[in-house]
């Protein structure tokens, strides 16, 4: 791909998307989420949206958290960032960043962490920008607060950031209002804003879901490139396994508020172990030549009522491989010899053969 | 706080949608679509009965104390309006000059007015007039307003322009002034007052209905109704208006109180009911000369107006929350 | 060759964006511009394009939610646009629509049974006493229990609501169903359920689909033929296998390569398009895709910036609008 700052003009472009060799392990842990639980207290009962979720983020890696709506993937990230709104509250757990538990930090220090060390971008670039301020206003304010720069230096930095995220003629576009930009451009601005303070960790919550396919490809390529340049870690929250396969180093799969599987991306896509992961992968209308007129594989039924979760495995009612035991008791999340984590009693690979 | 933080904290839609999804998944307890997999037993209990909208609404209303008290009060008013004339201790239109301007006592609970009429009896008897006027005036305004607003909102284009400019013209004149002008043309009398008050409040309803219809019209289910070949009239009455209903009900409740106030104002100006017919506003108007000698002559009809208007307003607020499913969930 | 079920001939839908003081149009959004397309009975035609390309407008033109600015929609031998409203309604009964957003497409104040029964009742498709049975039958056909008929839409999940929407369309006993991104608002595991359901129903009810989507992956599974739209124009039409194995238009190639795939073996070199989809308002002359086209420089002496290339057949059934592939 051409570097983003060359702007819109351009001849043929193609990038090689084969992934860099696994950086799945070995790097130091930068963010450690331990036994996080989040509840929503509603009139009809308490929804345990996140249940004992643990994961680690290593320096410079892309960790994907995958799940469908109601899986708790976004809530987990918001809880970790203490951005949860009532009626949601964190019931238990720790989020350790540089030796400090973010959940116990005073509000002021937490704001500092959110601005300078961990940033977030959201799904809907439309509503994440304030419509009455120019891009420059919004970018510089953030930069000035967190980097303690003067106005001029901040403005320069703003333009530099916009160039970094591939916005053409940033000197002009910086004066634009959000409505003057397209969805893809806004998502770039959001990214610029999130990156303007050199974060260690970027949490990207469905960053491409609202975008067109060709724009999605642009943003994903941008994120990959920025990660190389800046060396930050990315937590990518998404429901799209295709996106995960192309960008992530490690994957956490969530279902009904729990982690059901965790593995290096290559391993997960080569050999999914949890029946839910397997089902998700198989139900994607693929691009293979083989499948065609046969019906798609489908996971039957639907997500259980979060107020009334099954006693056993949450996925058991929809599972093709379930046993008596699955219905009776909840399988624990077990770390296997190969380092993968799995919450399932059944060895899917064996049953399938 | 930085802009970035603000924007992240303001990120309501996103987080809202997540919790909304959590709410929506409430509904998923109902059996699985394929019927192939058994539903877990304990899941059936939650949603085995369809939710009754009116029951839900009543529950929510009951939880709102002010609205509940208002509802009880208004029910009592209605009862008084119906049986009032038969239970008054005195004839409300019988004058007894020798007994004028007496302060409240055991015989005359609210005292007597400048003509010696029993104020308690007149306040009781006046309830019927005030409530009837309120309801009738609102009915006139509501029916016409809904029709005009629905046509304007649904048809759009020049029809919309003509109707709404007309409404704007009416809104440009203070409503009570317009009502007085109308009364001047129509003549005095309570029936004329009802018509005048009804007519001048049409624009408010028309605007509210139109605004709602414009937003409802954009929904896919309206397009769906077109696609399955429904007529415009059917779409308006079966699909558009029911969805605007909650807003209309709330507005009407609030409208009753303002109609009562307007009647009182017209009565006060001597344009409404004709004496000796009892009416709260008229009672106030005629007693205003005695405010220092006999304040009770103003106090009780004034209290009746205030309490009734307050009750309708509080009920309206309660209904607004009760009719809004989103407000109900919390 | 069989007769097409429906033919779009030089169909255009323009929206006026701005007028001058004299009321003359000064700015036009060409949502659909001179589009011709045949859909044959029993087939599923996938129509693909990014937001703003006019694919949804095509759907709305077909179901008479929009009136065409120019061109014909020929169905059953007559041009729908020329019919009087009463007659048009009778023809349009055969063409139904499934919406993208299952949350906005059902009236929240009506029980789902009424939502499905209403079209039957109003159009007198069944005798009154049989309507109840028919509603139960349709609910079962889309995989819902007939006992759900008294429930309100908000009690259902997204996938179930989409099923109700499908049942409403089926109630009209249609020949053609326009599916406007029917699964893009649903969760992955539910998408597969709905796609399979649509597949089953087409056989059971003898349906023809126009399946609108923004990505080529969903359409691949369900379609027989696929058309790719860009800014109001069809740029490529081909049978499914042909299109996916031998895409010709540069835009089709870019769209195909942009699909994230889970199987590393299928990963191809990605073509990244620069910039955004250009605005369909007051389009410049020339090929609509020219401003983003990476292959333009390969086409020496072509009129890319002068005139939109016509859609030409390059091999049987494979049509493409690009000067690089002039056909015969």
Name some characteristics of this structure.
heterotrimer; A: 353 residues; alpha/beta; 8-stranded mixed β-sheet; 4-stranded antiparallel β-sheet; 13 strands; 22% strand; globular; C: 328 residues; Rossmann fold
Report on this structure.
The complex is a heterotrimer of chains A (353), B (330) and C (328). Chain A has helices at 73-80, 107-116, 125-128, 135-147, 151-164, 170-173, 183-195, 213-230, 241-247, 265-270, 275-283, 324-328, 348-352; strands at residues 14-15, 29-42, 45-58, 62-66, 88-97, 100-101, 118-121, 201-205, 233-238, 250-255, 258-264, 334-335, 341-342. By secondary structure, chain A is an alpha/beta fold. Chain B has two domains: 3-47, no CATH class; 53-323, MetI-like (MetI-like fold, Orthogonal Bundle), CATH 1.10.3720. Helices cover 72% and strands 0% of the residues of chain B. Chain B has 15 helices and no strands. Chain B has 330 residues and is an all-alpha fold. In chain B, helix 6 (119-155) packs parallel to helix 9 (190-200) and helix 12 packs parallel to helix 13. Chain B is elongated and about 75 Å long. Chain C is an alpha/beta fold and 328 residues long. Chain C folds into two domains: 6-94 and 174-320, P-loop containing nucleotide triphosphate hydrolases (Rossmann fold, 3-Layer(aba) Sandwich); 103-171, no CATH class. Helix content of chain C is 28%, strand content 24%. Chain C has helices at residues 55-62, 85-92, 112-122, 131-141, 158-171, 188-205, 216-222, 240-245, 250-258; strands spanning 6-19, 25-39, 44-48, 70-75, 78-79, 95-98, 176-180, 208-213, 225-230, 233-239, 270-271, 312-315, 318-320. Chain C has an eight-stranded mixed β-sheet with strand order 6-7-8-3-9-10-13-12, sandwiched between helices. Chain C has a four-stranded antiparallel β-sheet with strand order 2-1-4-5. In chain C, a hairpin with a 2-residue loop joins strand 9 and strand 10. In chain C, helix 3 runs parallel beside helix 5 (158-171), helix 4 (131-141) crosses helix 5 (158-171) and helix 5 packs parallel to helix 6 (188-205). Classes of the chains: A alpha/beta (353), B mainly alpha (330), C alpha/beta (328). Chains in contact: A-B, A-C, B-C. Chains A and B meet through helix 1, helix 2 and helix 4 of A and helix 1 and helix 2 of B.
